[in-house]
Structure formats: C-alpha cells, structure tokens
Known about the structure:
alpha/beta
Amino acid sequence: MKVTVVGAGAVGASCAEYIAIKNFASEVVLLDIKEGYAEGKAMDLMQTASLNGFDTKITGSTSDYSKTANSDIAVITSGIPRKPGMTREELIGINAGIVKTVSQNLIEHSPNVTLIVVSNPMDTMTYLVHKTTNLPKHKIIGMGGALDSARFKYRLAEALEAPISDVDGMVIGGHSDKGMVPLINHATRNSVKASEFLSQDKMDYVVQETKVGGATLTKLLGTSAWYAPGAAVSGLVQAIACNQKKMFPCSAFLEGEYGLNDICIGVPVILGKNGIEKIVEIELSDAEKAKMQESAEGVTKTNGLLQL
Length: 308
C-alpha cells in the first residue's frame, strides 16, 4: 500500500505522520515544490519510527512525480492561503491551476489512484478534479466533513460534559463557515439524542462554534490548524486502504442525491477499497433540507469562478 501526500506543509506532514503511526501503509511519499523541504520532513519523521514503533517507509521528493508512481491513494494539500489584498477569484484561480497540475501529474504516474482533495476551497477544488481528469467519480473524494464532524463532536462532548467516546454527530454541506450543516438533531450521546441532555440555547451554541471552528483556530494560532486536519485525512486514507467500509461525510460528486446535481458537496459516504463505495441518503428535516440547499447554492456560486 503506497500513499502519496502532495504538499509537505503542516497539514501534509501531520497527515503523513498519522498514516505512518497507524502502520497500515508500506510507503508514504511526501512531495513539495520547495527544494529539500519534503526530504527534510520525511527524514525527521523517519527518525521517529523507532520511537513511535512503525515500519512505514517515508520518503520525500522535490517535484519529482516519478517517485509517486503506482500510488494507491494520493492526498492533495497543495495550494496557497489567501493573502492580504487578494480577491477570492484570484485565490481560486491560483489554487485551481495548482490542483489541476498536481492531479494530472499524479494520474500520469498512477492511473488507478484514488485522490483525496484537501486544498481550499475544497468542494470547488474537488469539483475541478472531476471536470479536468478522467478518473471515475468514486475515486475522487473531498476531505472536509470528517474534520468538521470531529470539531462538532469536540463541541458536543464539551457541552454534554461527556467523554468523546460517548458522542456521535455529523456535519454535511459545504466546507465553509456559512456552508456547513451540523446535524444537531441527529447527534447522540451513547445512542440517546443530545437534545435529551441539552437546552436549545446550548445546541445552538454547539452548532455556531462548530461552524467557526476553523476560524477560531486561525485567530488563536495566526495560521490554519494542522493536527485535526491531518488526522481527518489519515482516517479517510485508512478506511480506503484497509477496506473498512466506514461512513464519513465527504465531498462527493452528486447526480440527483439529496436533490442536487453537478456539484461536489459534503454528504455521508461509505469508504472502502474502491474509494466511495456508496453515497448514503439520510432523512433530513425541512429545515436541514433548506440549509443544505442554501449551502449548495454557495458552492455552485464559487464553482462559477473556475475557468473550466
């Protein structure tokens, strides 16, 4: 099992670290455009192997995609953050060019690869990969919902004063502050609805804090988070690599599911050796359907900024 991670920054490196520590892959290749950067991160991580007890081989490469050949799964984290004075259109234009080039280079060397897109705006970048490659739709997955759901469960456990292992919940919709739809009425503590324990005000607070989860961390850290995003990606990679048939909310290409067409947006999916094995349609309330529709409209608007 060979996994490539493109982009050796904080998210890419933590993703590679979690994959290695879980010890299910034979090789992880880190690739970056910055000279020596991926090689240095890979060496640093390999020097933890005896300490963390893993046998996964981690190698680094500067822009040499031949090193990624025959990857089973590849993660795309590359792209730039929005800079002061930069318009949303400019950011999307730059990142679209990067993601398009990266995905085409990966497929050239690994035609049967399953791609996991992390680059932002994630739903739009996932849509771009669908539109500019010949990969089947079940092999293109956007990572957003797994991270948002982890943040949701963190806030739920906090509000419930419960251990995280007691808590379950899921976030669907677009991977953005306005777009995400935390399914608070489906959330549970050990199979009992969270609403049995929490007031409406407390539930509203959990939803709001989940939606600004990324922005809260950026404000505190001065940069984007990396531990939870890296762990979320590694969870998706493991589910595919080990054919676990686990359910995660992921950005998937929809053709009628949830009443939506020609869009990539977060919905529950079953992940296994073929990538997305199944899109799971769950019963949504009228309010949840309306929020999902609103989220889809926002994603579609952003997709319109792509130069396809």
